[in-house]
Amino acid sequence: MAATRSITWRGALTDAFVGGLVAAALALPMLGFRLVDSALALSVGFRLDWVLWAALVVFAGRLALNLLRMTGGLPDLRLGERLSARMGNTRHWASWAMIGFATVLPFLPFSDRSLVDKATMVLIYVMLGWGLNIVVGLAGLLDLGFVAFYAVGAYSYALLSTTFGWSFWVCLPLAGLFAAGFGVALGFPVLRLRGDYLAIVTLGFGEIIRVILQNWQDLTGGPAGISGIPRPTLFGLPFLARAPEGGQTFAEFFGLKFSGDHRVIFLYFVILMLALLTNLFTLRIRRLPVGRAWEALREDEIACRSLGLNPTTIKLSAFATGAMFAGFAGSFFATRQGFISPESFTFIESAVILAIVVLGGMGSQVGVVLAALLLVGLPEWFRELQQYRMLAFGGAMVLIMLWRPSGLLSSRSPTISLGGGK
Amino acid sequence: MEYFLQQLINGITLGAIYGLIAIGYTMVYGIIGMINFAHGEIYMLGAFISLIAYLITTTIGGGSVAIGLLVALAVTMVFTALWGWAVERIAYRPLRGAPKLAPLISAIGMSIVLQNFTQISQGARVKPLPPVIKGGVTLMQSEHFTVSLSYLQIAIVLLTVALMAAFTWVITRTPLGRAQRATEQDMKMAALLGVNVDRVVSTTFVIGAALAAVAGLMVTLYYGVIDFYIGFLAGIKAFTAAVLGGIGSLPGAMLGGLLIGLIEALWSGYFSIEYKDVAAFSILVLVLLFRPTGLLGRPEVEKI
Amino acid sequence: MTATRPPLLEVEHVTMRFGGLFAVNDLSFSAARKQITAVIGPNGAGKTTLFNCITGFYKPQVGRMALHHDDGPVLLERLDDHRIASRARVARTFQNIRLFARMSVLENLIVAQHQDLMKASAFSLAGLLGLARYHKAEKKALERARYWLDKVGLLDHADDEAGSLPYGSQRRLEIARAMCTDPVLLCLDEPAAGLNPRESHELNGLLTGIRDEHGIGLLLIEHDMSVVMGISDWVVVLDYGRKIAEDTPERVRRDPAVIRAYLGEEENEDLPPEVARDVEEDS
In what residue span(s) does the ABC transporter domain sit (chain C) (predicted)? Predict the structure, then answer.
């Protein structure tokens, strides 16, 4: 970048000064004045000192950046590349270490209920990321409405379990099937649209689902949502303090003292298992004809057609598969929360999941985990900061993209070799 | 009949506003092929800046509505355009030539940043403004229903038409417009022929933001309430309008905006207000199925 | 072979219009089995459009294109593009190489055998479960891929990213990939474009080898006259979307109509064919 350009002191100062001026101009209307609504009418308050601060911060920041460039350039921050290269050599080792760590996490000395809760949250996004990775990373279809399938899964479980009393383990595959069915139903008409058209239509679909959930009072409970969703059991053993008549609780069966932690830890393992299942599926299917066809489609649709591959069915299969995993994740989300409402399925969720996939490095499974930790995990620790959390979240999305436009980990290894392909 | 006419008027007013925002999407898409997801937020900033500017000028200027509005319009266009320029400079320009999804994610990030920045700096509560331009003309009257056209609606439509005419003139008749169209056709070639591509792209963002700023001012006056969240839905609708009209096509953006406005007004007038967004999106899908490049988009011949 | 057996590909009265422009106008010709048929003509003569019609990327407004298999004809104009490869077994390459750039060389060849592998893996379900049937099919696919890699001299680069290969290798890989679909007709859109003389010579060997050893028909658009004259058995000449000549290479190069098409309408009719060739090569 500009590192090669020779920068003089004068240039550095001028540049920083201009930056500061621009910052002041930007800040003047939005920070310099404040809308105050009193009982009578709207009025404007002043806080011009903020403008000065904004200008000073930007001036100092740009000056520091320019000086860094002057004195031998920015420190080489190619962390990701080094990580990619190293992961290439030790990928298996690293993945197993990660899985091992995830397995023992709830039993580590520093683990407490809130940590396991947060880890569960991260794992939901990891699973959603892995699901969307099939659609965006492998098949190259830009889906901005992935949350719709997540919602379908959550509402399927909630409705089936509260209406028919079916257990989580029966509803889980059904929810996945429903979501996949929605994927096919949406995908069939729109999948021949190209790139950005597909993006806006999927986005629209996500919004439509949310609007329907919000307004179809009789089925979905409207904005109030559905509460009292049954919790999962371990082969019929509930995680309760006292067993329902004629039954046994988990704690009783294993002769443990009842603790609320049991359920938290159990839920953690359920989502860990579901996520690993998603991962295993993806790793396997990448080595199968369908998976390779997805990637080929991402690379060049016209070439695919010239080789006899039917793009519509290939796209549909990717769309449906991704949707199915979102459906699984959705029903897990419903059973974990015990309560769902349309508010949990807004566009921002789709954006977060997409960001996880792209930041992770399209198509990279480990990258998704890293990105989910970064985007979902870290902000979870700063919940107290409320609004600043989302500000930092958006800022992080921009900065990471600027820093690594092709994602954190972007290396790819062939799925077959002449040695025999396994 | 009267009712229909009233909804038509409301729809056209709404459509004018969407059209102004849609131009920003369609121009940026035409020139650098990205969905500027933060454009809805630029419009939201425009609404806030216009409200602040109006309140300040009427306080200082002794309460003259006309002067207040004119000053607010000018100030809003300038400052919002600056925001549009800054967003491109910070979040998109470094990513030119990066993988296709990188600028999209950056744009979504920028949109989150601007939304939360506004929420923090101006507060989360809705900002109400009492009606500024009052009155109107009654077009038709029957026993049950009065069709009225407010002065504000007239002003919105007239201003939109004037802006679009001026804008079309800029694009088709000026050197700037020529450079803009050349860059849209082939950025590399334009650069080789001496077009300053960076400046053209910046100008595109500046113009788009200025038009969105006007839309922001109009909405502030029309609805009388704004909050930090209005950019999202308006952005999606305007983008839908751009796609409906054929993304990359300027008349398409105006037509698309008008159609989305009409669909929304008529649907909420005759069916249900809750499902008006569903109606707009469904029609988008239908149109795309039969005309995959939108109403006025150039049909693409696949180059093989 | 009996006298009544129809040629491999029969193109009859094909017309393709873009707006008012006739890119291909009432064109009829045929391509024989086990022969290399070259389609030549000045720039803009409609060669690539013709190819896109035959391979289904464009649908001609008028005309019939029949591909005669042993078990009867297939009408190409009625098939979707992807069905032309899978059902009619016509494979093609592209003027601007279209490889799966970020996939490995070997993967490119395996994707080309998608149909067989899908059937064997019962739409990947058997593969997901790791059944033996799928392993057998995969092994067969790998054998075929290995055969073609060897043919085009890319065996040592099987695991390389296709996009990272040098230009000439990419051209050969694209041909290998098309051959992996097991076609009866291979359509090559300017396979020698951008190759140096040595590579171009090797290409001639590869194409005649495909014709002689695999017994399939080749249809070839080419600007490089050394390729056209060196290997083709039959030459069809187009100009402004119409066929102006059709003959053996030796006779076509002496055809006054052909020379006129390449050199313009002036009184150049008695220019020697060598000059015509040079002019063509420069264009």
Answer: 9-265
User: Does residue A192 share a domain with residue A63?
Assistant: no
Last residue of a domain, one of A15, A47, A70: A70
In a shared domain, residues A318 and A179: yes
Contact across the interface for A398 and B113, Cβ inside 8 Å: yes
Residues of B in contact with C95 (CB under 8 A): 304
B236 CB within 8 Å of a chain A CB = yes
**Helix, strand or coil, per DSSP, at residue C92:** strand
Q: Are residues A184 and A239 in the same domain?
A: yes
- Out of B49-58, B169-178, C226-235, C255-264, least confident range: C255-264
Q: How close C164 comes to chain B (CA, Å)? A: 17
Check CB contact of B189 with chain A, cutoff 8 Å. Answer: no
Task: Show the DSSP H helices in chain C as ranges.
Answer: 47-54, 81-86, 105-111, 114-120, 125-129, 132-151, 167-179, 197-214, 225-231, 249-252, 256-263, 273-282
Give me the pLDDT at residue C267, please. 46
Instruction: Give the pLDDT score at C180.
Output: 92
Mean pLDDT of chain A: 83
A300 chain-C contacts, CB cut-off 8 A: 98-101
Q: What is the mean pLDDT of residues A314-320?
A: 92
Touching chains, A (3+ CB pairs < 8 A): B, C
Same domain assignment for residues A343 and A203 = yes
Helix (H, G, I), strand (E, B) or coil at A419: coil
Give the structural domain span for A23: 2-70
pTM as predicted:
0.85
Q: How far is Cα B160 from Cα B162, in angstroms, rounded to an integer? A: 5
B109 CB near a chain A CB, below 8 Å? yes
Distance from C-alpha of A327 to C-alpha of A321, rounded to nearest angstrom: 10
End-to-end CA distance of chain C: 41
- What are the pLDDT digits (tens) for B126-145? 888 878 777 778 777 777 77
C48 touches chain B (CB under 8 A): yes
Closest in A197, A302, A388 to B304, CB measured: A302
Contact with chain B for residue A353, Cβ under 8 A: no
Instruction: Please report the domains of chain C, with CATH numbers, ordered by start residue.
Output: 1-89+184-283 (3.40.50.300), 98-182 (3.40.50.300)
- To the nearest 10 degrees (0 to 180), the angle between helices B276-290 and B250-270 is 140
Q: How far is A418 from chain C (nearest CA, A)?
A: 7
Are A62 and A85 contained in the same domain?
no
Q: What fold does the segment set B2-290 form as a domain?
A: ABC transporter involved in vitamin B12 uptake, BtuC (1.10.3470)
Nearest residue on chain B to C50, alpha-carbon basis:
B304
Cβ contact A309–C91 (<8 Å): no
Structure confidence at residue B146 as a pLDDT band (50, 70, 90) = confident
A49 and A189 housed in the same domain: no
- The whole-number pLDDT of residue A80 equals 54
Number of helices (H) and strands (E), helices first, in chain C?
12, 10
Q: Are residues A186 and A243 in the same domain?
A: yes
